[in-house]
Structure prediction request, 951 residues.
Amino acid sequence: MNVISFALRRALGLVLTLFAASFLIFGGLYAAPGDPAALLAGGQRPNPEVLAAIRAEYRLDDPFLLQYGHWLAGLLTGDPGTSAVYRTGVGGLIAERAATTAFLVAYAGALIIAAGLGLGTLAALGGPAVGRTLTVATSAAQAAPPFVVATLLIWLFATRLGWLPVYGAGSGFAGRLEHLTLPAVALALSFTAYVARVTRTAVRGELHSDHVGTAEARGLPRAAVVRRHVLRNAAAPVMTVSGLTLAGLFAGTAIVEEAFGVNGLGSLLVQSAARQDMAVVMALSMLIVTAFTAVNTLVDAASALLDPRVPQVR
Amino acid sequence: MSAIHAERVPAVRGALRRAAARDPLLAAAGCVAALAVAAAVAAPLIAPYDPAGVDQLEVFGPPSAAHWLGTDDLGRDVLSRIIHGARPTLAGPALVVLVSGVLGTALGVAAAWFGGRTDAVLSRALEVVLAFPGLVLAVIAAAVLGTGFAAPVVVLSIAYVPVLARVVRAAAIREAHLPYVEALRLQGASGPTICLRHLLPNLAPLILVQSTVGFGYALLDLAAVNFLGLGLQPPAAEWGLMIADGRSAVLGGHPGQALFPAAAVVAVVVSVNVLGERLADRFGLVEA
Amino acid sequence: MSGPREPALLRVEDLHVEAPGRPLVRGVGLDVAPGEAFGLVGESGSGKSLTARAVLRLLPRALRTRGRILFDGADVGAFTPAGLRRYRSGGVGMVFQDPRAHINPVRSVGDFLTEGLRTVGGASRRRAESEAVGLLEEVGVDAAPRRMRQWPHELSGGLLQRVMIASVLAARPRLILADEPTTALDATTQEEVMAILGDLRRERGAALLFITHDLDLAAAVCDRVGVMYAGRVVEELPARELERRPLHPYTAGLLRARPRIRGPRGRLEAVPGRPLPAYEAPDGCAFRDRCPRAAEVCAAAPPLRPLGAGRVACHFADEGAPGTDFGEDVGEDAGGGAPGEIGEEDRRG
Prediction:
């Protein structure tokens, strides 16, 4: 079956890309100026013996490729090194925060899909007034980046409305839902607008296509025409774009987590970069790149499977 | 000289008014973009105050005749800071678009022209760069190179290459298969001549539209990096940084310090997007 | 209107179609009897496709229509949405020109064929599928069960058009509209597809409204032929009369512009001038700028009046058969008008 070989080829491409990316990340941070041993030793002026001990412990005197291999092996076995700032394993730091960030991404993703697809379809199928209103609204929303929306929401909810918390991540499902609503909205708004616009364009394009004319000429009920011909055909392009958008969310968490004081992976990445905590930056970069690329590949493959015209043997 | 001027100005004005009546959105976008550029170019001439001029007596002053947009937590004039902030805020994305435009066009045309192995190698390399979201690359750069103006601009210039290179490559392949290119080859024109004198001018509208759209994205990415504290540092005036600086003021009930620069960001990005869309319409390109 | 005939299945009365400021169809009237094949012939822009789409109420909303369309005595324009769906799903079926564009590319052939049977007819999946396979075999598609599982892009244009015909036959319509059904196909396939459409509709007793720019094809397939020019029907004749005694100078010009296989080879004649859409045509007789017989009187629009076995809109039509009368002076300065066929087709007609 060529679907399987198609999937295998995509998976292989994904692995190769990630391998190259890991090399770039390690190489880039290896080339950073400054002595990693000094960073690891902390703020005080370390004596040479301590430095030597650290160098030995972290294999800092090994050749570049050996260090890279060691790091890569660590990543794959779940031991991505030790944080110079927190002085604990990077794996543990990530594990503590992963749930919060995953919740945030899922929440924002759900908002984007539900509102983006819904509003886009409504704008295409509704009357001209609905279409125009939504076009103006989405144009404005699309240009409102997460850090702007976050600031606006913090102002509104901290000083005016007070319905929802503007700081922290909360605990438990209800607490998270409450605390992460504003961050998720801030993260989702511009992406939602984008997905809505793409959906509207795709649905309108199908609505005026010849084959939909055929379906109408056959006297099919309007609902069947819309569902089986308009929405089904618009699904592939809309899915591609929505998927790329979701992949972009992983990077966007850094902004809203910083803005709303959410202790997640995004804010960990930003703070670690500011303090040059290289082991954490490398591991998190690799994690984000992996998530981003994996989602992209999945979406690409899925939309190829949705459209029978895309040749699966290439 | 002055006579000619006197005759011409009303004609120009009339033409502009007619254009504005035909497409008010485009006219508004053009005005905002022109204002922003003018502010960036002539900031010291336009700005009413020193952007770094601290005034302890004027902390959190409301908008007034003296300070149109009020003053911030250190008593600095917000309008002057926005006007001066236009410089790094616009110069950054301009550099990103310029550098990634040159690199992306060169790589895209090269991949299309040579094809085969060159194309395969370039495409794979671009795919690897594409695996890094621009913001993540900028964060890594901050860790490696430290904060400042240059590091995020350099890495975003690289991060923006693949998208443009792919678009240019696809268009160049289409263009290179047109009969006129074949005819030029038969006439003995060299590869570089065809690429520079014939392919590039025909790709120019596409590159222009892509760069306009890219400018908006780069502005948002760079402002985000500055917002995160990984780019320019206080007391520099830059819009993303001003928004971050104003966060505690927002919580204290003084939103102007953060929201006015935020409005500036949104206004400029909306304008750039409108200009990009209209350019694409004008050249008959489908929005990517 | 034209002699004692059984009551019309489809009657189009004084149909006008108008884009803002541009008349496209200007008062078309025609009758199609049950089981009859009627050919509507005309150039690009003559309004023939718009007329067919108006019969199905498939025109874009931006176009305004006037006049009446009666199907089996019921006013199509007054149908409720449910009534319109019933009419489209059971009364009339449409074979479109370009099957590649008019069949949903992301649904399988079987899906396309059974959709109407299952959604509107309420048939079970198994029954709909066996019926669809039978229909595919009838329209000459080999390996029908396998075709059911294929995608539209995997079939040739000729096969796809047979699938389209099968899908129309599946609904057992009383009237089939065929809008240039073979124009997008190559010549040998054209003949086969046309023969299949003609045979199967005759077997089933369905009437046919055949839209084409090919006068010969219309005369071969149809019982009666109407010729359209610039948004009007200028002539209507039984098909066997058409070749021998055309009544309108335009029809006569078209007939002379055909290439011939037999007989001496000469230069091809063409109708002088270029085909005009309705909104560019002159007042009065729309053909008078291109007509060799044009005179003062043509400034007044000639009514479509009965003459012999048909109807014609020409002031000179009873002064002898134009097909034999004039000719030597026509087409010497052949400027426009493609020889043989009447220019290429545009989809909106």
